[in-house]
Amino acid sequence: MNSDIGEQRETIEPWLREILRCPRCKGELTDSQGPQGPELHCPVCQLAYPIDDGVPVLLVDLARPTDT
Fold first, then answer.
1. What is the separation of C-alpha 19 from the centre of its chain, rounded to a whole number of angstroms?
2. Please, which residues bridge with residue 21 across strands?
3. Helices (H) and strands (E) in the chain, counts
4. pLDDT of residue 23
5. How far apart are CA 28 and CA 22, in angstroms?
6. Closest alpha carbon to 25 in 57, 56, 54, 58
7. What gap in Å lies between CA 13 and CA 35, rounded to an integer?
8. How confident is the model over 30-68, as pLDDT tens digits?
9. Which residue has the higher pLDDT, 9 or 37?
10. Which helix (H) or strand (E) element contains residue 17?
11. CA angle 34–7–66, rounded 5-degree value
12. Closest CA to 18 of 48, 47, 56, 52
């Protein structure tokens, strides 16, 4: 029996991951884990964009500021 059945892991297809960019600065995004779950982090803008049901939400208004 698979122990991951109850655990939902949200991932982005590799081909899509390569073309996604920050909507604010057009910089590359990196995968990260935020307080609400998986996110895409922009190291230039210091914003983290949520991933909702495997779909990146690349809206600056919904991005979370980060300290790193």
1. 13
2. 28
3. 1, 5
4. 97
5. 6
6. 58
7. 22
8. 999 999 999 999 999 999 999 998 899 999 999 999 986
9. 37
10. helix 14-19
11. 5
12. 56
